[in-house]
Design goal:
The complex is a heterodimer of chains A (903) and B (111). By secondary structure, chain A is of the alpha+beta class. In chain A, 53% of the residues lie in helices and 15% in strands. Chain A is built from 28 helices and 24 strands. Chain A is elongated and about 130 Å long. Chain A starts with a helix and ends with a helix. About 1% of the residues of chain A have low confidence. In chain B, helix 1 crosses helix 4. Helix content of chain B is 59%, strand content 18%. Chain B is globular and about 55 Å long. Chain B is built from 4 helices and 5 strands, in the order βαβαβαββα. Chain B is an alpha+beta fold. A 3-stranded antiparallel sheet of chain B has the order 2-5-4.
Amino acid sequence: MAWYRRLQNVFRAEQVDDELNSEFEFHLAETADRFVAEGMSQEEARRKARLRLGNYLVQKERTRDMDVAGWLDATRADLAYAVRQAKANPGFAAIAVLSLALGIGANTAIFQLLDAIRLRGLPVKDPSQLATVQGVKDFYIAGWYASRNEAFSYAQMNSLARHQHAFSDMLTFWPTRFNLSTGGQSRYAEALVVSSNFFDVLGVTPVVGSGIPDKDDKVACSSGTAVLSYAFWQREFGGQMSVIGKTISLDGHRFPIGGVMPRSFFGVEPGHGFDVALPLCVDNVFSKDGKGRAFNETAFWLTPIGRLKPGWTIERASVDVRNQSPAIFRETLPSDYRAEGVKSYLANKFKAASASAGVSSIRRGYENPLWILLAITGSVLLIACANLANLLLARASAREREMAVRQAVGASRPRLLMQLLSESLLLAVAGAALGFSLAQLLSRALVAFLNTADNRVEVPLGVDWHIFGFLAAWAAITCILFGLAPALRASGGEPVAAMRGSRTATASRQRNGLRRMLVVSQVALSLVLLIAALLFSRSLQKLLATNLGFDSRNVLLATVTTKGAGMENPDRRRQLFRDLDSHVASLGNVISAAPILFPPFSGSGWNDSVHADNDAARAGGKEAWFNRVGPKYFATMGTPLLAGRDVDDHDDMKAPKVALVNRAFAKRFFGGKNPVGRSFRVEAGEGKPDSLYQVVGLVGDTKYNEFSEEQRCIAFLPLTQDDPGDDRNFVLRARGSLGAVQSAFQREVNTLNPNLLVDFRVMDVQIQDSVLRERLMSNLSLVFGILAACLSTLGLYGVISYMVARRRTEIGIRVALGATRSNVYTLVARDAAMMVASGLFVGFTVALLLSRYAESLLFELKARDPLTLLLAGSLLTITAGIATMLPARRAARLEPTTALREE
Amino acid sequence: MSKSKNDKLQGTLTLLVLRTLEARGPLHGYGMCAHVHLISNDLLEVEEGSLYPALHRMEQDGWISSKWEITEKGRKAKVYAITARGRKQLADEEARWARLTRGVSRVLQYS
């Protein structure tokens, strides 16, 4: 038998045992036979045979030792014992394992997300050399913005590339999405419209075909090469090599496919993958004017990334682009700015920032919240570890006697330590394993949570072994340290002392110092977490309680797109929209429907400078926001029409320009008087005539894009007094199910024109999505805050019960000497109160110190909100009170005779 | 003369077992005791308590192999047989034993 058989035998203990028994049985039987043959009785022969063999059990054990690997066998026995211990104490084991698992799982999940959007370098050549250029604080340029990232105009990018000295080469890109389908429901591909040097600057080479050819390095082109991402190639084209030379339809335009990028390359925006990349020159293909934004001085859409020259740092690059800023802005000054605009435009400055981890809008919105969440979950893990340490300490003291007995009957000290070690490790390993699976679930759930219809979030969530390993090791160290430390102490003592059960009348304070400190820090940490949780959830509540000014319930939002449907002629679109307007309102299950330019909370908007009535000033108008609506929009959304009339079909291109304004608008521009009959003027660009609008109606205030925005002054203009756009949004108030309305609408549109594309959204969902971050913070911090409070309450309970148990004798004597129940009660409660009070004190101090980090994420709430502080403090005090009451009552009920008799 | 307890001398038991198995072919533990007893003319007796741990150790070392058989009396017995490695070991042990006895007898003779 080789060594592995010995290992194997460890796990077939029963079989090995059986075989040994059979072998010895045979030997005994044969020996007995001989003695019988010599004339002994059967029984005597049997007895003598056994005597000759010696101590049966010892023989068996000695023989067995030859067959099994001793160290492994001992470990197996230890583990089996540990499992038995866990089974005997399921509550202890469950709390220990679960709290560890939650701590490890949540931390790993959040760290994975942070790592993906913030820390991990882009999957390109030397990502540390990459930098982006941004505007410094107070950067302000008026114009049309069309990017989720900080964006600049084509002219600015060209000028920047020429003036700067820091980068060997610069790329620019515009993230967008294109419609893949050519009729019916739209299906989107995430796209990057990029400069032709995009892949070269990044140092990424295609795995199939080629990248974007140099010939596409033009301002405009009629067609350009499409480059696919690996995932998209697999998904849409089954990974076939023949894809090169095929075409792909994007928003109804066909582009030849040139190549496929490697699997690891997800783009330059962590959190947003790309499906297809097109050269910048195709922008004109998609534009209405046929020229594209390259020629538009006030279209801001491009984000730059440069590769630093050798020896250049971000700081040096920052200084360089800052120094070049005046020249760049002078060169790119939009011609239609008025004097004020020119002044503020020229005052702008650029700076450079690292892009080694790419540029990310998700990072901007979620980096701070994620760090805060990581701090929260980190604290939970600390609390869980402290709790575990406390539990292990308590258990170790409870088992001092057991240890002493084991030692007395001959267990060696290393053997005892090994046994305790395996128990602690079992907890740590179980906790880590569960935490690992939890981390995967949680990080998926997190990404799914961040994913909305408008914002597809894709985060490559590989298992982060580093962070997981770190956390698991942290847990294991806690277990080992606190599982073993008392064991070392216990096993170092004289067994007799422990067995005698000689407890000193008053338990020594010093021995409990560590446990008290653990409880105090637990209380402090959980107070901080509770405060955070309450702050975030109260802030969310306040946000959601904001009056939107319209009723979002049971409203379906439909977007009809004419792109690629052969409707380039505006008159055809105008006719189509008129048809749609009339058909939509009469759909079954639709109470009311109306078209709108920017549906509320869509994220889009339009603002301008406005002058009340027709004052003569050329500048100095005040800001107002605009929207365009069709008839019955306000009735559909439940926004009250306070005075005047709604827009109607007579408000067409030939009629005088009219507008409805909201209360805030009326207050700001007309001093709160009835604005109907008044007029206002909107500033136009330099050299263009301003537009004058007649106010025909007054409506209630509504929110434009966010819960938290200051009430904006809004003017609603008729859709029919504008050129028809490419697409049109409808709000439909449904009776009953939104699904039925959706299919009815889809059918209606397709009968009008089968090439039209429709997109649906639920208004409520769109509105809820606008407070995604707040919901994330509120939900997670609440869960972890409560968890932390529970864990520390448990810790407090454990310590108090343990101390009551240790002080039984003392309490017995006190009661015997005449202490009343309430005296005893106070004795115990004072102890707990001391710990809780110090915990609260430390907690409040920490919370006040940290408050400024949370401030920016709160709505109408100070981070030092006294009510929240009070609430968190009293919540914790009450739970701590309950946790103390139970053991304190046990102590108060203690019969002195019982307690003293035990000694 | 008292019977010499053979396991006092390290390695003797191994030698006896291997030699017995080589001479007699496959045999169970009890058979080995009986054989040694018989051949040594009652001079040697294998201590039964030491035999089985030794057998199991030798099996782990690969010197002997084992299988279960049913004897004529209908009992289940674990029967050991010497392996090729066991024969090599036996040769070594025999040589060692010869050296040892030669050495010991010289000391007894000449000192």
